[in-house]
Fold this sequence. Notes:
disordered N terminus, flat, single chain, mainly alpha, 20 helices
Amino acid sequence: MRKPTLLAAIASLALLGLIFPAAAPRAFANDPSPLGVRQENVARMLEELETKFVQLSEALRDTEPEHATRLRDALQQSQRALIRQRMITIRDHLNAGRLKQAEAEQQRVLEDLDKLVQILTDESDMDELLDEIDLLKTYQERIDQIIEEEIELRDESNTIDNKQQVLDDLEAQIAAVEKLIAQQAAAQGAATAARTQGVHAMGKAAEQQADVRKETEAVAKQIAGKSTESPASPGRPAEPDESAESEGSESTESSEAGASSAEGESTESSVSSEHAESSESSESSESSQSSSPSQSSSSASKAAKAASDQLERAAIHQAEAEKQLDRGKGRGAIAEQQQAMKNLEEALEKLKAERRRIERLDDEDLGRLAKEQDDVSDRTGELAEDMSESDQSGESGESGESDESGESGESGGPSPPMPGQQNVAKAQQNMQKASDELGKGDPAKAAQQQQQAINELQQANDQIEERLQQLREQMQEEILMALEARFREILERQKPVTLDTARLDELRRSRDADPDSNHPLRRTELLKLRTLAEEEQALVELVRQAMDMIAEDGTTVVFPQIVAGLRDDLRAVADLLADRQTGPYTQEVQKEIERTLEELIEALRKAQEMQQGQPAESAPPQNEQPVPPLVPGSAELKLLKSAQLRVNRRTTAFDKARPDTLSPTHVREVERISDRQDSVRDMAEDLSEGAQ
């Protein structure tokens, strides 16, 4: 089970303080008793909350002493301010019909409750989480950039060390692309001839183009393999066999897996094969390193990636040409083939340009590489220093490697280092060694150190990602509780508005039926109606704040749109009340608002139960893990169904209450119902796509 958090107390307090809103409409003069009963319930809830403060403070005393202290301070402030006793006084005012005195005292009590909330939220937990997430993401981006640059330096070291092998690989790639160009020219010629020979010839031309397209895709994959088989994409965890590091040693895998291809007459076999991955420590002999041409396996990665991209584009145009030929559209097919040919020629030129560049490389380029390595090393050192300073200044909050329970230490000892900080520092040391080796004219050993630096940086990213995962989970806990408190508050404020709207409508109807009545609503009642409209508009703002929290999470599909619909419904009711529309349709929309709030609260409650049922311990992520949705998919599906039912009920209600002549307000309402149906359709599509 997860530990109780401070926000649970804050949420309860916020709920309590807003059950009797200062801006709530006044009760009717002949009906003060219900408000008095509600006020007495609030006083009793405060008493229960004070008891919970004591219990929660004891529970958190050892594990979260700072939070326990805040709870005790809040309890003492509540007792000093005599808030509970003053609530009883407010109840007496309400029961006696002294509404002005009751409202004035309510306002003062609300101000004292705000002070309690401030005590509990001196340091906003959510803001702290957001700050730490932003900080870690910034460091992760910097590490990603350094990894990318270090991979380029390693590849260049390997290229110089295995220059002839790299050139041989490029020659094979160039030959493969030249063969593709010849095949594509033949396919284009066949398509041109088929235009005058009928549908049967078009079909054969399509088959020929399909063969070339398959060859193009195969060559694209093989060439891309030379750039993608480096230990990992920049900034992301490597595969186990590519980033393995022997325990108790600083040695790492110094070479990469090469893509082997069987010899034969196919285009695939025209791209040269590469040797299997070799492994040796940083202190191993130079002869073993130099004898393994696999060190060139990722050289020319930029050129390989660019050429592969062009081949993939060519394959797309080739596939479209096939479709055009199958449909008997020769002109369109030839246009696609011409574009494919351009892509093939561009791929060829990129490979040839890389060949010319590598041919000019010599040992003097090692000096240039050493300077570039020094530059990357300096920036890596700056990153390590920034991470250390952030940790010492407390900017990272509770960041650090977690213990077995998943909790960071808060027991007064030295705080753990920033996640990945030590690995970044080690990476800089490897970079400095690589620079020294380049200065000595030994690119093979330099590549070893560069590879180890990459591995250290990838491990740093692993640790940062693990911490980010923890923070995202904590953020979701905070958001779930805050949203539940907010929606409960809105529901408590909506209910009296719905009741008062029905009462006003009942008064209007009774006077409409009285032939002696000339005024369906008196001036005081019209003022009350305006107050109700203002309250509905105030609730719109509360929903907007909830939407901001949901947007901050960004993991759900249906949930945020349901909340947006709730906001629109509140706006619609505010407009209807401002237009003095208190009839059955307005009341039905208000009831739908309450149903929506109840469904949202239930979905949030279930989401919290699911989170609490999850074990607190979790294994470190081997790859970047997707953040689980704030609300589970089953709950979103249920919300979607309810949304459609609400549109159905609202359509029926409007049709029953539809006047002979539609006012501008009614016209807007029809548009809102139409928009809501479109929204439900879009939500269904989004949910379907997310499930695939």
